Amino acid sequence: MLTAEPIIYGAIFIGVLVIVEGLYLVVFGKSISLNSKVNRRLQMLDKGTRRDEVLAKLRKEMDQHMRSRSVPLYSMLADRAQKAAIAFTPKQLMMIMAVVSVVAFLGLTIGTEATMPVRLLMGVVMGVGGVYMWVNSKAKKRLSMIEEQLPDAVELMVRSLRVGHPFSSAISIVSKEIQDPLATEFGIIADESTYGRDIGEALKHMAERLDMQDLRFLAVAVAIQQQSGGNLAEILEGLAKVIRARFRLFRRVKAITAEAQWSGKFLSGFPVGALIVIQVTDPHYYDDVLDHPWFIPACFIVGIFLALNLFVMRILVNIKV
């Protein structure tokens, strides 16, 4: 006798991710998607929104999550949401967690015969875990795009400085000529500079918010030049070469360690996959041992070792560049 419960669990979890992504695009529009090449800040300005209103809105989106770190459930999500610049407020994200948890619970109730405690637990796990995975994927993709765009942005600043533009104008040119997500980040710095904030301080804040070493290098280089003087174009040209070299080295390390990463994932995922296949093909396979006193403890021990395998493999391939 075959059972479709494992497939239903997977379909419900995928549905949770689709619901969250759909809500995000419906509420904020296609331009906020990382797949869009539209400069969101310039698009907001083209619609007639005042520059100070655009700045206030974007700064609120980018800083709102760190102010909610003290919330117990939300603290694990705040850092990733901050780096992903999720436009949902912390309250909205927690409401979405609750809504998709209810949806997952209803789906499990309709599609499975699991007991009430199991449905409640899995509904919460799918709701909270689904939102976390969605935010985490957004953060990873956004940071990866910023890392790839940064060398070109710094080189564009160098060319702007060499033709006679001041550094504030060079920042503004970068915000208009490159694509999002880095364009909006530099656009915020350009607007803050216009309203009186020190550019070095604004760059440092961006580097700390995104937690990127290359941006810290840029902030330190600008701060040193402001204090001691020197040819900023030459400093940034050297920095662009360093950033591009670090980016190439990081990609090379990532390619070299990819085999070990996937080996760890395969070794941890294969037993789970085998268990699902066994349950689908023969649901009564474990009936003879279900009542054994060591069955449940053994399941927990296996789960712990599988999780440790992923953790250890991640440490071994986490090479700092």
Major sheet: none
Mind telling me the CATH class of the domain at 147-243?
Mainly Alpha
Shape, per Cα inertia axes: elongated
Ends distance: 53 Å
Q: List how many beta strands DSSP finds.
A: 0
CATH architecture designation of the domain at 147-243 = Up-down Bundle
Low-confidence stretches: none
Total helix count?
Answer: 12
Structural class: mainly alpha
Helical content stands at over 70%
- Average per-residue pLDDT, rounded, comes to 78
Strand-residue proportion: under 5%
Query: Could you please say which CATH topology of the domain at 147-243 applies here?
Result: Receptor-associated Protein
Q: What is the ordering of alpha helices and beta strands?
A: HHHHHHHHHHHH
Alpha carbon gyration radius: 24 Å
Commentary on this structure:
The mean pLDDT is 78. Helix 6 packs antiparallel against helix 11, helix 8 (182-194) runs antiparallel to helix 9 and helix 11 packs antiparallel against helix 12 (295-317). The N and C termini lie far apart (53 Å). The protein has twelve helices and no strands. The longest helix is centred in the last third of the chain and has 50 residues, at 232-281. The protein is mostly helical. Among the domains are: 147-243, Receptor-associated Protein (Up-down Bundle); 244-321.
